[in-house]
Amino acid sequence: MTGFAEYARYDAVGLADLIRRKQVSAGEVLEAAIARIERLNPKINAIIRPMFDQARKQVARGLPDGPLAGAPYALKDLGALYAGVPTVNCSRLCANDPPADHHSTITERLLAAGLVILGKTATPEMGLCMTTESVLYGPTRNPWNTDYSAGGSSGGSGAAVSSCMLPAAHGSDGGGSLRVPSSNGGLFGYKPTRARTPAGPDAGEGWSGLSLEHAVARSVRDSAAILDATQGPAPGDPYWAPQRDRPYLAELGEDPGRLRIALTTKGKLGEAIDPECVQAAKHAARLCESLGHEVVEAEPDYDAGAVRWALKVIITSNMTNLLATLGQARGRAVGTDDVERVTWQWAEDGKRMTGADYARAVQVLHSTGRKVASFFSGFDAALSPTLASPPVKLGVVNMMRNDPEVFFDDLFDRLPFTPLYNVTGGPAMTVPLHWTASGMPVGVQFGGDFGDDVTLFRLASQLETAQPWIGRFPATMAA
Question: What domains does the chain contain, in order, with CATH numbers?
């Protein structure tokens, strides 16, 4: 395999298997990844901080055994710290911050699994948008059509994987931020049950439990293997998801049984849903029925308006606290010239929220979780479009162009389905089962009951076998 030209054809588990069987070395795989990044990243702008020297040293030290050892990987420039490398949240405010002096817990676990971390990926500033177009680094482009958004907030990771620069990459999800770029990129995006992966050691939870970290991936087995490597509590965690001994990787190929699946294609607040997204969900429903599952039109009963209000309280309050904390670290107040318009406005909005508002918002999240749990007593999974539309053009949802006063509602009108599972804490996945006539991917979402990641992984494996997607590549793959 001179030069390992076949690199882009493999997922992470496949690459690790080749390395384990000595058909190619970890060094050859790494150099193939680096060569591909150097060739494609200038067109896509997914990797904003190469870490090639660190990756080469990691490989030279030797890698552990395991289903992921030697596979290239990258960290989103938000949340996951890597000792010796800055994490700047793709913000001008943090652009000159010093390197981290420690790894995050999830980084330690990724390294222990033998994933070779070779860069940081782009995100919108502070992870606040469904498209990745920061002022600091510029837009990240969709490999399927570079005039369009790769999604966000894990948009750099999504673009790196959909262009086959990487087989999988790290991301986080506080309202859909793993599922959005996966839907836009023709990828499998999985948000695990709340607290299944650790947020430590610098935090106990993200956005009052709305956010957690996992991965975007080309294959279901990569997502399962990465979750096996990272899941489980760490010392000091305030709470954690129900634990299990059997690996998720072992669940793939297992019969999920005859599932009862609820289907909805309507936004609860009357959000406009593009016909392509409706078509994608209905196609997925027919596919599920062909596999022996029962599909019923139904949706949980909860107050979507109250949920949107609660999300605004929690997210803006967290932004107020974050900018205050960053200002204290710099010995000065953060100003309007330090951050993007929406970041500043949301932090200002958070100042107007009261402690009572915050307590009430948490109560809304909890009551919604109970109502949805009751709904799942009659269903095994819920199917919907992932997003309200196919990928949008760059500049349409922009944190500097859009009116910050209306940006929040505009953003969540485009995300009518994904935030519910951040609110309930239940698992959710986007599965690439549909492409438009112009060749743009459109994902469909399946959500599940709190703690029931097994059912979704078994269903995902079944869908992947019935309608494989890993062989579909954007034109940039051959560039």
Answer: 2-478 (3.90.1300.10)
